[in-house]
Design brief:
- Residues 28-141 form the Co-chaperone DjlA N-terminal domain.
- It is a single chain.
- The chain is mainly α and 158 residues long.
- The protein has one domain (2-157): TerB-like.
- It contains eight helices and no strands.
- It has helices at 2-13, 25-39, 46-60, 64-79, 85-94, 97-112, 119-132, 136-157.
Amino acid sequence: MFETIVSFLQEIVGGTGPADEEVTEVRVAAVALCNQVMAADGKVTPEERAIVADVFRTRFGLEGARLNALLEAGDRAEKNAVDFFQFTTVLKRELPIERRNAFVGLLWDIVYADGEKSEVEDHVIWRIADLLGVEGRERVEQRIAAERRARERRTLNS
C-alpha cells in the first residue's frame, strides 16, 4: 500500500530525490491541496497526516526540519488560500496529465485513510480534479482503485 502511495508522488511531482530542493512551488501546491482534502470533512486524522508526511518523507528523503519546512509551507499556503485555483493552476501548468491523474489518486488515498468518504470530500476532489483537467472517468477510476487499496490495508491490518 505504502509503495503505491510513494509511486503516486513520484509520478506527480517528479524529481530525483533528496538532492532536489525541499520546498518548490509544485510541492507546496501539492501539500496545500492534500491539506484541503484532509480538512474537507471537518476532521483531520492522524492516518491522513501520516500518509502525506510519509509520502514526502520517502519520496524525497526529507526528514526532520526539511520535511517540516515543506509541510509548514503547504499549511501556510493552504490557510491563506481563498480557493483551489491557485494550487491547481500550478499543478496543471507544471505537470503532464498522467501526473495530475496520479495526484487525484493520492487525494483519494488520503480520503480513505480514515476508512470513510464523506460527500464533502467527494465534492472537493471532484472540484480539484476538474480544475486539474482530470476527466470524470479517470477521477472515478482513481477513486475505485483507492477504495480497493483501503480494503487491502484493512485486511492486512486485521
